[in-house]
Structure formats: C-alpha cells, structure tokens
C-alpha cells in the first residue's frame, strides 16, 4: 500500500533552496525516520513554506513520476499555497485515521 504523508517542520525561511532542502531532509531523518521500520520506504517530494514558496525535493525525471507533485503545487497561486498545503496535510491525517467523512472544513 502506498500513501502520502505530510510533516510540519520549522525551517528558517531565509535559507537558500539548497539549504532548505538540506534542513528539511535533516529534520526528517532525525525526527521521523526513526519511527519507521524497514517497510516504510519513502521519497521526499516537495516542501512548501508559509510564504508559499515551493521547492522540489524529488529529482527531475523520477522513474515513478513523483517529481510531478512539484508541478501540481506550483500551479496553485503562491499566496494560497500554504493554506492549501495545511488543508492537504489535514486531509491526509483524517483519511489515515478514517475520519475524513466527519471533518468539516471552514474556509477563511
């Protein structure tokens, strides 16, 4: 079974793209990867900051097409990306917990 997981991380927004990628990867490796077992294979795909900046984490030309997630997010207006990412994360969690049918979303 394949799934999409989202993680909320505190990263310094002033970092350049390369540094943001390294920081997000480092945080994932130290905080979340230890919770996984040998069956939890993963691939980082994209990073969205509060400012709406989106960074591709999956290599271009990925053989499974996971690099396309970056393009999907880039099509969202920059000022709306963080709210979209937050809502997407919530949807992932509620789906995983089997609660998706009980959640009402309130648009601000």
Polypeptide structure, described:
- By secondary structure, the protein is mostly helical.
- It is built from three helices and two strands, in the order αββαα.
- The chain has helices at 17-32, 68-74, 78-96; strands at residues 46-48, 54-56.
- Strands 1-2 form a two-stranded antiparallel ribbon.
- The radius of gyration is 15 Å and the shape is globular.
- The model has no long low-confidence stretch (mean pLDDT 80).
Give a quick precis of the structure.
The protein has 108 residues and is mainly alpha-helical. It has three helices and two strands; from the N terminus they run αββαα. A two-stranded antiparallel sheet has the order 1-2.
Q: Uncertain regions: pLDDT < 50 for 5+ in a row? A: none
Number of domains in the coordinates? 1
Helical content band: 25-40%
Mean pLDDT: 80
| Overall spatial form | globular
Order of helices and strands: HEEHH
Descriptive tags:
108 residues; mainly alpha; two-stranded antiparallel sheet
Give the SSE layout:
Blueprint: H1 17-32, E1 46-48, E2 54-56, H2 68-74, H3 78-96
Antiparallel strand pairs: 1-2
């Amino acid at each position: 079974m394949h799934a999409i997981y989202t993680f909320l991380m505190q990263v310094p927004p002033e970092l350049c793209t390369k540094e943001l990628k390294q920081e997000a990867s480092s945080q994932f490796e130290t905080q979340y990867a230890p919770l996984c077992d040998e069956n939890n294979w993963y691939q980082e795909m994209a990073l969205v900051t509060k400012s709406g900046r989106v960074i591709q984490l999956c290599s271009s030309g990925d053989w499974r097409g996971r690099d396309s997630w970056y393009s999907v997010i880039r099509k969202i207006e920059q000022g709306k990306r963080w709210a979209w990412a937050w809502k997407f994360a919530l949807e992932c969690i509620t789906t995983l917990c089997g609660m998706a049918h009980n959640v009402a979303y309130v648009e601000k």
